[in-house]
Amino acid sequence: MPSIRVPSALRNITKGASDVDVDAPTVRDALAALEKLYPGIAARLLDGGGAVRPFIKIFVGPDDIGGLAGLDTKVGARDEIAIVPAIAGGADA
Amino acid sequence: MTRTLVVGAGGLGGPLALALAAAGHELAIVDPDTVELSNLHRQIQFTAADLGLPKATRLAARVGGTGTVAPWAPALGDAVDLIVDASDDPATKFAIADWAVANGRRYVIASALRFGGNVFAGAPGVACYRCLFEEPGEGPTCADAGVLGPVVGAIGGVAAAVAISLAMNDRTLAGALLVFDDLRRVAEPRIVRFAPRSGCSACARAPITPQPKEIPDAEHSRSQRSS
What we know:
A: about 90 residues; alpha+beta; Ubiquitin-like (UB roll); five-stranded mixed beta sheet; 2 helices; B: about 230 residues; alpha/beta; Rossmann fold; eight-stranded mixed beta sheet; globular
């Protein structure tokens, strides 16, 4: 079962969960399954048209899905789907 | 001696400025803000004696170099070889990266949030920050997600190490993003590498001919622009 690596910045939505196993054949399906478990997270990752937001990158293993089949990239049982957001924290809070 | 501009004199900028100064960099530090009480738990370069005073000049007084009480502006980049972003503003990060690409400078973009952070190593001839993250977004900030105090010190230290490597023309990490997911549990970063993005507006403005301050790699630069 593929696993989604949730970045620290979004774990307030996943109630602290860092790795979420989902039963899904593609990245798109995996994100849909993640949304079912943790409503609201998809809106942080995808825009209104269902595309990955520009400041979010998604990797399957070491590969950016932008260089593969995008959200239709197939995932296997041992694949890790990593979500990497641009973050801006630094000088102040 | 490498002339380095540090943008942001807070939690990230403090430790990285200390490290770069100790490594012999000639520093210019810019930050528009003053030291506040809520900063002191993670901006350990400051003490209560600094409250209300400008961060840029207080940090410069401690590590040497010049301090300017102002936000990033392109004119600040002209006099330096390397720019390190330690700001908390997404638009500033993109503006610095875009300017560095257009002017053939090496640059580092550092961010910390909650328990981790990202450090991007930028250099001429490789995929740029905008190739990866196409535009500033509505991502979480320290204000809404918080940040663990020591995390900014750790990420600032990594940013300094990356900056020193780039200053020494070490291209090992050029074009890579180091992702530290949760420093409470794992100190090893995920190193993300990616190809230049076709249609990247920043790379379209990159010089074809290497600039004097550029790390030589002209062939890669040409192929990047034509893609």
